[in-house]
Each structure stands twice: as structure tokens, then as C-alpha cells.
Backbone:
């Protein structure tokens, strides 16, 4: 099975970040890491590919920098990577990103595309579905378990109450949640071999696309301070108020 | 907060700005290792140690390894699985030469992995540390057949190793050991005797344990001269090469210890059940002690690293706590607020003391490790010899000075926490308890000081020491170009002068044959030596940080912090060195004035 995994390099969330004052876009350091949520996608892809003697190709968009994040995914065992790095894609919106990814995926060929549900630095959460639409294949989203083979893929789709079992014919796009599988740690050998694996860097014109970014970040505000909590005094009837509160936040 | 986060930025700065790892990467055999590759390896390994190994530190302390009624030793929950992952990931073999199935990294990078493992979980790290010593012994002195038989699985970590020297009557004085080895007609030996304090001497994480045992053959010379070294596997190999035949090596008991509870410290008995445990001679008879010396330096550096590693782990906890805990009001803070304790000058002092010593230790240890690489791989014989001399000189200093600091820093880590520091829940006490063994094993720090004075100081008629001092002097002179390093420069020069004076005084005692006069000052001398070489490292750090700041484009906050810790060391910690001069040059005068009996109650 030919698996494509969409993976993104992001600045290390543990280090301070900066936004450009006028565009409000994230300043991207040359050293970026593999988005933690993508480790799950890579692992899922590796397991499925290994079971079917297939291959895993990484597809990524964003400033390549020193490729540390891409190498991390290659070190886990992916076979090769294609990264689209083009200044004209700066501040790309979800649809543009999906167009770029879909174009690369088409060129690479695929049976199954795996992506995380949302990136840690962007959180739009819509790219996988858009990619599926652009590729003209079904999107199976929020997978907490994935099996594939014999021309079809089956997932457990996470819901508020539990999960749905969703099945589709291949080719298809699946978005996986954190925890779908336990990502492996790259081995020493894997890291050394990753250096020699093919990484192709493309520009937008290589893909014959013209980016049309429609989104602008108008302003960035700090998140509101957390409000003081409510103290419920027990006058014998406090449980009623507690039930009401729990219902309000939809946990019961 | 995570138990431990690998300080990759600090490690990177030390490797590339202070130690200049490029000098090693450009040598034959290492040329495929560019900075990005090494950085990638270190950050992935760091992630592994902090996510897989560090979370087991606490449980290891609480449960400890436990001797079972059937004579096996059960390691704490999670250790076996984590060890398996460690073996799978291949970190165990990273700096073993590729010829033997290793990763072929420089030792200098290998020691970074050791640091991270030890910060994450010191007790656990001892298992691979001893395995590595066994590997080095086999590589250097084993026969081809022995290497073929044992190295493969030791290198991957599937088998582990031990070093069995100590006996009840033979600790610091290894030459007093009595374990007996008798040659059999088939060329193998039978060993009988008891070894004590054997680290990871028995456990359930590997399918075989390869003991390297020092023992005496009949009629051998007395003292260290007559000692031989043997391979004694826990399981002997059957005809198919599988470890299935139980050898007569058994755990009698495990020690109850102050710290490193997860590390089983075993009393091992050899040949208790009959005519001896089967052993295979390494090299020739009566050369065992000589063989020990080839791995002595790396084994000692491996323990020196524990001083650094524990200080780092302890510091991370203390820093986090100091930023969170509010108590009292710092001078100048708004009246309505209590301040985080990190705002109090005394807490700042403790934190900076920890951080500055940590940086000095890291620089000193990595510098020594780099010389180990150069002593093995430099292009010319001359360079290799010169590097080997520096390793010989700096090793006892790195071992003893760093492990002494480790205990002090772990103690400061507790102090920063106040009362909570005394409570096990914070993890601070465990670091303190764990740290305490490092000044004792692998040659007590007292023995290191003796080694420095008796063996290292006189190397090449004192020229080796003088060359190092000249080098430190050159670094001190470089400080001159910067006004804000003026005090640092003065202190480094003063320290260096005191160190030269102390060295000369000791040298004269040795020449006069007044050994006891020299040995009386050995420990303060080693401390002075460490403090001044630490100052040298921190001067390099300051110069590098200043240059990078001036060049621009770097992480300014990080570099300014480097300047601050370097200056703090140079201006406030380094001056302690000169104060040691009277203790070094006092000789035995007061030490033997009082009868020990009169000192007692
Ligand atoms: C937890 C633990 C793990 C260990 N692991 C191992 C292991 O894996 N393998 C192994 O073989 N050993 C191991 N050891 C043994 C360790 O190396 C010895 O304990 C150490 O070398 C000191 O020997 P000793 O205990 O006999 O102390 P002693 O030699 O009795 O020393 C007592 C004191 O006297 C001082 N002293 C002794 N001789 C001199 C001298 N000539 N001049 C000046 N001062 C002197 C020492 O510095 C020390 O302060 C371990 C010990 C412990 C506690």
C-alpha cells in the first residue's frame, strides 16, 4: 500500500515564539520540530505500510529550514519526503494549503492519505477534509483506530458518546487523533539513515499552482484572564446547583 | 512539569562553543557527522531519556531492586520494558566503533548521552555504564574469539556487563583481593571467592550477564602485580552459542543503601556450589591490573558525569520551584504582593551557584572527553600522545571535583525548596541521596587526589601540568580585551598563580621524598585544580558568548545568561581557589599532632 502522510514542521512549543508586528504571522526559526500530533500519523502510516510491504511518503508545506522536523519523521522510518517551501505561501489559508498538499499527493500517487486532525500551531482542523475533496476521495476523520487492506479502510470515528465504525473504499483520506497508536522513538540507526533518504523541495511554480490566499490575520488579542470560579456553599441543596453546572458544561 | 528536560541548548553551546567538537568531527572516521546530525541525535536521545527513562526515577527509588527467594533480582516496575526500548532504539551502542557493531560516534557525543541518562535516572544508568566498561576491556584486550562471542550482544545491550573488583578486604587497595582462579587442562579457569558491592550484578533486564572478574592465579605475585582478569558469564553458552548453562555465580544478598535504590548492589559468590565458576582468561595471567588501566579513564569520567547530571536534574527542580513558590516580599516589590522566592537575592545566589558550577562541570567533562577522542583518533602520534597526557591529568580532577560538586549542588537544590526540599515528594532528597555514592566508587575522591599528586603532577617532569597552565594563561589574557571581564581576568590570573605555586610546593616535597607532606594537601589541591580549570572553561564560555552577542543574530537572552553565569563564576566562585593554598602547603603539621584517641569523646 502506498501511504502518504501529511506532516508539518512547527517551532518547538517549549520555546518562546514571536509574531511579526504587522502581519501577525509566526516568525519561523530555521530549526523546527515535527508537530507532535503528526507523530501519530507517521506511526499509523508506518504500521499500515509495513503490514502491506508498502511505502510511506511524507508531504509537507512550509519553510523547510534545516529540515529537522522532516528528518525526525524520516528517522521514524518514512521512505522519502516532499516539502513545498515557497515565500508566496506565507500566511497561507487552509484552502491554499489543501490545494498545495493535494497537488503533491496527486503527483506522488497514493492508496491512503493520513493526516493529523489539526496542527498544533494552526488549529484550523479542516485541511484533511479539503484535501480529500480536492482529490475526489472519501474523508474519514477523527480516527481513534485504523485498519486497512483489500482495497478498503475502516476506522473508529471518535464521537461525543463513543465511536462510529466508518468504512470506505481506497483510495481515501484519514485524519487520526493523538493516541491512535503509540508513536515509536526513532532509533539511532533510523536517525543516521534519515540523512540519506530523498527529500525533494518544490516551489509553487513547480506544481503549476498560483496561490490565492484569501485569509488575513486582522488582530491578535491575549486570551481573556481566567475568571474566578464559583464557590457553592452547601445548604443541603448544593447538589442541585452542582448538577446544573455540570450540565451547563455538558459533562453530564 | 516533566521530571527532566534535556538541556539541549546548553549542551550544544558547550560542544560547539567551548569544546569545539569540530576538531573531532573533522578527523578520519567522523567526517559524516555534521553539526545538524549531532544536534538531531542529541535532541532525539534527550526526548527518549526524558519521556521514557526519567519517569521511572521515582518508582525506582521507592521500590528498589529486590532479591527474590529463588535468587533472582527483580527490578522496579517499568525498568525491564524501558530497557528493552533503550536496546531497540540503539542508544547503548552509539559511541562504540562501527567495527564492533556500534554507531561509531565520538566519545564526546557518547558522554552527552551518558549525562542525559544519568540526569534522567542515575541508578538505571549504571547498568549501561558498567556494560560499556566491559565492552572497552574486551575490545582492548580480548582475543578474537572472545570478541566474537561476547561483544555483539554487549554492544546492543541485549547482554549486560559488570566489573567485579571489590572484596571485603580489598576496596581502595585492589591488590589485596583474594578470589582464586585455577587453570584447568582445557585452558579454562575455575573461580572461587566472594565479591562485594557489585553494581547490577544480577537482574532481570537481560538474558545474560557477563562479569569481568579480577582474581589471583596460584603462585602469582603479591599486590596488584599478580592480578588477572577473567570473563565469567552468568550463563555459559551451549554448542549452539545460546546462553543456557547456568554458571556458578550467585547473589548472596543485596545492600540496603542511602540512594540509587534501583541499582542492585550485590554480594556475589563464585564457585560456592562446587569446584568453581567457569571463567575465561583475558589476555595473559598477571596483567589484569594493566588492562584495568585502559578503561580507568573513561570509567572515571563516566562517574564524574554523575556529579554534573545530578546537579542538572536537581537544578531543574529547584528553578521551577523557585519561580512558583511565593513567600515574603522582595525589596521593592508592591506591598500588596508576596514575591516568588526567586526574587530574593539569597535564592538567586543559590540558583546561580548551581547553574555556574553545572556549566563549568559540563565544559570540563566534555573537554576531557574530547581529548579522549583525540588521544585515539588524532592524525599524528605526537598529537595522540599529547591528548592522552591531558586525559590522564584531567581525569582525576573531573571525577572528584565534579562528584563533590554534585553532592553540594543537590544539597543546594534542597535548600532552595526550604522545608519541601526535605520532603521526598518533591524529588529533591532523592537527588541528594543518589549523588552521595559518586565520590566513593570508581576510586574514592581521596584516591583521585592521590593519583593527581603522585602520578599526574610529575608527568614528563611536571611539563604536562605547566603546559595546561600556559593554556589557561592564554585564555586569561584574552579576557583582557573586554572591560566587563576585568574582575574575571584578575581572579583567573590569581587562581592560576596560586595553583602554580601549590604545584611547585608539592613537586618539591615529592622530589625530597616527603610523600606524606604532599599527600596531606592532596584533596585541597585537587579542589583548587578543579576550581581553576572550571574558571578556564567559564572564561572560554564568556568569550564565546560575547563574540556571538557582538556578531548578532543569535539567541540574545540565552547568551546574556551565559555571560551572567560565567561572570558569577569568575568573580564569586573562582576566588575560593586561592584560599586553599594554606591547606595545601601546610603538610602534615597539624594532622598528626593529636592522637586520634584524644580526638574522641
Ligand atoms: C553502591 C556501590 C556500588 C559499587 N559498585 C562496585 C562495582 O560495581 N564493582 C566493584 O568492584 N566495586 C564496587 N563498589 C566498591 C567501591 O569501588 C569501593 O567501595 C571503593 O573503592 C572504596 O573501597 P572501600 O569501600 O573498601 O573503602 P576503603 O578503601 O576502606 O576506604 C575508606 C576510606 O579510607 C580512604 N583510604 C583508603 N585507602 C587510602 C589510602 N591509601 N590513602 C588515603 N586514603 C585512603 C578512602 O578514601 C575512604 O575515605 C561499589 C560500592 C558501592 C558503595
Residues:
Amino acid at each position: 500500500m502506498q501511504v502518504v502522510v501529511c506532516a508539518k514542521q512547527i517551532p518547538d512549543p517549549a520555546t518562546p515564539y514571536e509574531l511579526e508586528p504587522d502581519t501577525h504571522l509566526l516568525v519561523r526559526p530555521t530549526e523546527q520540530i515535527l508537530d507532535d500530533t503528526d507523530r501519530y500519523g507517521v506511526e499509523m502510516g508506518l504500521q499500515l505500510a509495513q503490514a502491506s510491504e508498502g511505502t510511506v511518503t511524507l508531504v509537507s508545506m512550509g519553510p523547510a529550514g534545516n529540515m529537522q522536523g522532516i528528518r525526525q519523521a524520516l528517522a521514524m522510518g518514512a521512505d522519502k519526503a516532499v516539502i513545498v517551501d515557497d515565500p508566496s505561501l506565507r500566511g497561507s489559508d487552509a484552502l491554499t494549503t489543501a490545494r498545495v498538499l493535494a497537488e503533491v499527493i496527486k503527483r506522488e500517487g497514493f492508496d491512503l492519505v493520513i493526516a493529523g486532525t489539526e496542527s498544533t500551531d494552526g488549529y484550523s482542523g479542516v485541511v484533511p477534509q479539503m484535501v480529500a475533496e480536492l482529490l475526489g476521495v472519501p474523508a474519514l476523520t477523527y480516527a481513534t483506530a485504523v485498519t486497512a487492506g483489500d482495497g478498503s479502510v475502516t476506522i473508529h470515528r471518535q464521537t461525543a458518546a463513543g465511536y462510529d465504525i466508518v468504512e470506505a473504499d481506497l483510495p481515501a483520506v484519514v485524519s487520526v487523533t493523538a493516541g491512535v497508536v503509540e508513536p515509536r522513538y526513532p532509533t539511532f540507526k533510523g536517525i543516521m539513515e534519515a540523512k540519506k533518504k530523498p527529500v525533494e523541495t518544490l516551489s509553487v511554480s513547480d506544481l503549476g499552482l498560483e496561490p490565492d490566499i484569501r485569509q488575513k490575520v486582522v488582530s491578535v488579542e491575549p486570551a481573556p484572564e481566567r475568571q474566578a470560579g464559583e464557590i457553592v456553599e452547601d445548604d443541603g441543596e448544593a447538589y442541585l446547583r452542582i448538577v446544573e453546572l455540570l450540565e451547563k458544561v455538558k459533562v453530564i | 512539569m516533566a521530571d527532566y528536560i534535556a538541556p539541549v541548548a546548553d549542551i550544544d553551546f558547550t560542544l560547539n562553543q567551548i569544546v569545539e567538537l569540530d576538531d573531532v568531527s573533522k578527523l578520519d572516521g567522523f567526517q559524516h557527522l555534521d553539526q545538524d546530525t549531532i544536534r538531531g541525535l542529541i535532541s532525539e536521545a534527550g526526548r527518549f531519556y526524558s519521556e521514557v527513562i526519567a519517569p521511572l526515577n521515582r518508582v525506582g527509588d521507592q521500590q528498589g531492586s529486590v532479591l527474590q527467594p529463588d535468587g533472582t533480582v527483580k527490578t522496579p516496575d517499568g525498568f525491564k520494558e524501558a530497557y528493552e526500548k533503550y536496546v531497540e532504539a540503539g542508544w547503548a551502542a552509539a559511541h562504540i566503533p562501527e567495527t564492533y557493531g556500534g554507531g561509531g560516534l565520538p566519545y564526546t557525543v557518547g558522554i552527552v548521552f551518558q549525562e542525559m541518562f544519568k540526569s534522567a535516572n542515575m541508578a538505571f544508568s549504571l547498568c549501561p555504564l558498567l556494560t560499556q566498561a566491559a565492552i572497552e576491556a574486551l575490545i582492548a584486550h580480548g582475543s578474537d574469539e572472545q570478541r566474537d562471542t561476547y561483544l555483539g550482544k554487549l554492544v546492543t545491550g541485549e547482554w549486560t556487563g559488570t566489573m567485579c573488583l571489590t572484596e571485603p578486604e580489598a576496596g581502595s587497595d585492589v591488590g589485596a583481593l583474594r578470589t582464586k582462579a585455577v587453570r584447568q587442562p582445557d585452558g579454562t579457569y575455575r573461580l572461587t571467592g566472594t565479591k562485594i558491592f557489585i553494581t547490577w550484578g544480577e537482574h532481570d533486564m537481560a538474558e545474560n550477564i557477563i562479569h569481568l572478574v579480577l582474581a589471583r592465579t596460584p603462585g602469582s605475585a603479591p599486590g596488584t602485580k599478580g592480578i588477572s582478569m577473567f570473563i565469567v558469564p552468568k550463563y555459559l553458552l551451549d554448542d549452539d552459542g545460546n546462553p543456557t548453562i547456568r554458571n556458578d555465580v550467585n547473589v548472596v544478598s543485596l545492600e540496603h543503601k542511602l540512594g540509587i535504590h534501583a541499582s542492585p548492589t550485590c554480594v556475589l559468590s563464585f564457585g560456592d556450589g562446587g569446584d568453581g565458576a567457569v571463567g575465561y582468561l583475558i589476555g595473559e595471567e598477571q596483567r589484569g591490573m594493566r588492562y584495568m588501566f585502559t578503561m580507568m579513564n573513561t570509567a572515571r569520567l563516566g562517574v564524574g558525569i554523575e556529579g554534573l547530571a545530578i546537579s542538572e536534574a536537581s537544578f531543574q527542580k529547584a528553578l521551577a520551584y523557585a519561580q512558583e513558590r511565593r513567600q515574603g516580599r522582595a525589596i521593592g516589590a508592591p506591598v500588596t504582593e508576596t514575591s516568588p522566592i526567586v526574587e530574593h537575592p539569597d535564592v538567586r545566589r543559590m540558583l546561580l551557584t548551581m547553574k555556574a558550577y553545572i556549566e563549568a562541570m559540563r565544559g570540563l567533562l566534555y573537554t576531557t572527553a574530547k581529548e579522549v577522542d583525540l588521544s585515539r583518533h588524532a592524525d599524528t602520534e605526537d598529537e595522540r600522545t599529547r591528548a592522552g597526557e591531558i586525559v590522564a591529568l584531567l581525569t582525576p580532577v573531573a571525577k572528584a571535583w565534579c562528584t563533590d560538586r554534585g553532592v553540594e549542588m543537590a544539597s543546594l537544590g534542597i535548600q532552595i525548596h526550604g522545608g519541601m526540599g526535605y520532603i521526598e515528594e518533591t524529588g529533591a532528597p532523592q537527588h541528594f541521596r543518589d549523588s552521595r555514592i559518586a565520590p566513593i566508587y570508581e576510586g574514592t575522591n581521596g584516591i583521585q587526589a592521590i593519583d593527581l599528586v603522585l602520578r599526574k603532577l610529575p608527568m614528563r617532569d611536571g611539563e604536562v601540568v605547566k603546559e595546561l597552565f600556559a593554556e589557561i594563561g592564554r585564555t586569561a589574557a584574552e579576557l583582557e580585551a573586554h572591560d566587563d571581564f576585568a574582575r574575571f581576568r584578575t581572579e583567573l590570573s590569581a587562581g592560576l598563580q596560586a595553583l602554580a605555586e601549590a604545584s611547585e610546593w608539592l613537586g618539591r616535597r615529592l622530589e625530597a621524598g616527603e610523600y606524606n607532606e604532599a599527600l596531606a594537601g592532596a584533596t585541597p589541591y585537587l579542589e583548587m585544580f578543579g576550581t581553576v580549570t572550571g574558571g578556564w572553561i567559564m572564561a572560554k564560555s564568556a568569550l564565546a558568548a560575547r563574540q556571538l552577542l557582538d556578531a548578532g543574530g543569535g539567541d540574545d537572552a540565552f547568551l546574556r545568561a551565559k555571560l551572567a553565569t560565567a561572570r558569577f563564576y569568575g568573580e564569586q566562585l573562582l576566588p575560593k581557589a586561592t584560599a586553599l593554598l594554606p591547606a595545601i602547603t601546610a603538610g602534615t603539621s597539624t594532622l598528626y599532632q593529636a592522637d586520634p584517641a584524644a580526638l574522641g569523646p
Notes: Chain A has a mean pLDDT of 91. Chain A has one domain: 2-248.
